[in-house]
Amino acid sequence: VTVTAGAQQAFDLLARILVEPRRTVVALENPGYPPLRAAFAAAGARIAIVPVDEEGLIVERVPAQAKIVCVTPSHQFPLGAVMSAPRRAALLEFAQRHGAVVIEDDYDAEFRFGDRPLDALQTLDRSESVFYVGTFSKSLFPALRLGFIVAPPWAHVALGAAKQAADGYCALLAQETLAAFIGEGHLARHVRRMREVYAARRKTLLDGLQRDFADWLQPVPSAAGLHLTALADRSLDLETLVERARRRDVGITSLRRFDADPQARRRQQGLAFGYGSLDERGIAEGLSRLRKLAP
Amino acid sequence: VTVTAGAQQAFDLLARILVEPRRTVVALENPGYPPLRAAFAAAGARIAIVPVDEEGLIVERVPAQAKIVCVTPSHQFPLGAVMSAPRRAALLEFAQRHGAVVIEDDYDAEFRFGDRPLDALQTLDRSESVFYVGTFSKSLFPALRLGFIVAPPWAHVALGAAKQAADGYCALLAQETLAAFIGEGHLARHVRRMREVYAARRKTLLDGLQRDFADWLQPVPSAAGLHLTALADRSLDLETLVERARRRDVGITSLRRFDADPQARRRQQGLAFGYGSLDERGIAEGLSRLRKLAP
To answer: What is residue B107's DSSP assignment?
Structure first.
């Protein structure tokens, strides 16, 4: 396990050791997480964006020359789909057939509601092709800046050297505090408790959306995480709505922010609602203000 | 000011924004600090090593095509020279004439004994060509992993983007704690107190070297820092000595570890003695054990 400064440094270190500038093709989910794209772009990768659907990444759309495929199988960011078992198998098969690697960004697997989780790609992998990236940004808090990579053995030396060159090592006080926190069982307890808290917030949000916004927002089914996404008809002007909401202290994000292909003709649009730092009263108040601004 | 994960991340971010792979020539002091070299090598720089003497970097030996020059003017690492005022002026003149930048690694400027310090290159710079790198690894402790860059205004946007892509930002708890520690005057008090502590350690070390090792070690005059270097005749086998000392729990480092040009015919050799984490008794005991192993 390589300890990193959050998931972002994990992406950055992986980009450093895996990308040959101007050559390596990296397949990224679209819509997806812009800072991940930024790390690979900074390393000089050729980026191929691949659409997602309700089963996650559409594996058959990954270009054959892709040498790195990045996915968020537990909870697609930002749409929320869980990658289906057949897609997981197809992705691993792709990696093995093309000598590609998979970066499994399991950014908020801790907060899963409902069904039993599917096996991680890292668990299913039989060909040493998966890098598993975890973070404590969701289970604890982002300003902690701690995450980790579980890498195949062949990559350990390069990853260690990249970490050394990047910043040496992560602050020991934070690492040791977190290790004790985990070791004494506090993290597991915290996650259990917060899972209920987040489930209640999620219910408030989902109920509100279904009750008061059904005429223009369709929540995307999703079983995990600290945010919920809802799709809207393409004719609506969501950018103006987001801006007006911001002026009323309602923070919502347009899906367009996560779209690497904003010129595409047939483009989904929608809103992402985060509830990691907003309690049920706050959620209700936010929805009520938003309702008055509805497009 | 860009807050970084120690000086190492500062070097790494600067390498990312300033180096064009396989093109940019970076001039580094030799002997010098290997992790600095590693950061520039990882970014694909062409590395030119430049010798130092008792006035610091020999500026006239910097190749004209160098676009980045890295120096440790307060306390050359590892030899200990303070860069002279004429050399500082010559380096800034070089930078201005060739459109080069200077990276001023002021790694332990806090612990200066004796003379009033010379102005930093950053202070003397009139052409926005100096990046000043500071760290709290020496004034506090390395595992804190906090440092900073003072950059010319033209580089702020690129540096911010590089930090974002690298790891987002540094852990806020550590940053806020340090800010309070500085703001309440504790850092200044700590440095004042430690300066006396380190001066006493340095005296113990220097006295011991001059008394018991004068036959084969010549300490390099030096007015700052947490380590002292001593040169030895080239005929001695210091590598074996370092290894034998290590087996007796005496940690000394051969200068060869800092030499980027180990094939050079006329090569200095010597030993670096660190006293950042060893009290006077420990220093005396270490010297006594070392004396018995003398080559």
So the answer is: T
Cα–Cα distance for residue pair B5/B163, rounded to 1 Å: 10
Distance between CA atoms of residues A67 and A79, nearest Å = 24
Chain A contact for B165, CB < 8 A? yes
| A4: contact with B, CB 8 A cutoff | yes
Residue type present at position A38: A
Nearest CB among A161, A166, A169 relative to B166 is that of A166
**Hunting for tokens 């969501």 — which residue is that?**
A238
Across the interface, which of B12, B145, B161 has its CB nearest the CB of A171? B145
Torsion, Cα of B91, B94, B98, B104 (10° steps): 10
* Per-residue DSSP letter, A112: B
Query: Contact A271/A294 with Cβ under 8 angstroms?
Result: no
**Segment 34-93 of chain B within 8 Å of chain A by CB:** 35, 38-39, 41-42
Which residue of chain B is at minimal alpha-carbon distance from A172?
B143
Question: CB of A221 within 8 A of CB of A54?
Answer: yes
Mark residue B172 as left, alpha or beta (left: phi above 0; alpha: psi -120 to 50; beta: remaining). alpha
**What does the pLDDT look like over B212-251, one tens digit per residue?**
999 999 999 887 789 999 999 888 899 999 999 999 999 9
Two tokens at A98? 């093309």
Take residue A38 and report the two structure tokens written for it. 């930024």
Average pLDDT over residues B170-194: 96
Contact B59, B29 (CB under 8 A): no
| Three-state DSSP class for residue A47 | strand
How close is the nearest chain B Cα to the Cα of A9, in Å? 4
**Residues A164, B21: C-beta atoms closer than 8 Å:** no
**Using alpha carbons only, how large is chain B's radius of gyration in Å?**
19
Question: Do the beta carbons of residue B150 and residue B159 sit within 8 Å?
Answer: no
Q: How many CB pairs under 8 A join A and B?
A: 98
Is residue A21 less than 8 Å (CB to CB) from chain B?
yes
A46 Ramachandran zone, left/alpha/beta (phi>0; psi -120 to 50) = beta
The total number of residues written for chain B in this structure: 295
Nearest-Cα residue of chain B relative to residue A39: B165
- Whether B166 sits inside 8 A of A6 (CB atoms) is no
Q: Quick check: ipTM above 0.90?
A: yes
Asked if the Cβ–Cβ distance from B174 to A171 is below 8 Å, we say: yes
Q: Tell me whether B22 touches chain A (CB under 8 Å).
A: no
pLDDT band at A108; cut points 50, 70, 90 = confident
Given a contact cutoff of 8 angstroms between Cβ atoms, the answer to whether B112 and B74 are in contact is: yes
Could you tell me if B11 and B135 are in contact, meaning their C-beta atoms sit under 8 angstroms apart?
no
User: Could you tell me the pTM of the whole model?
Assistant: 0.94
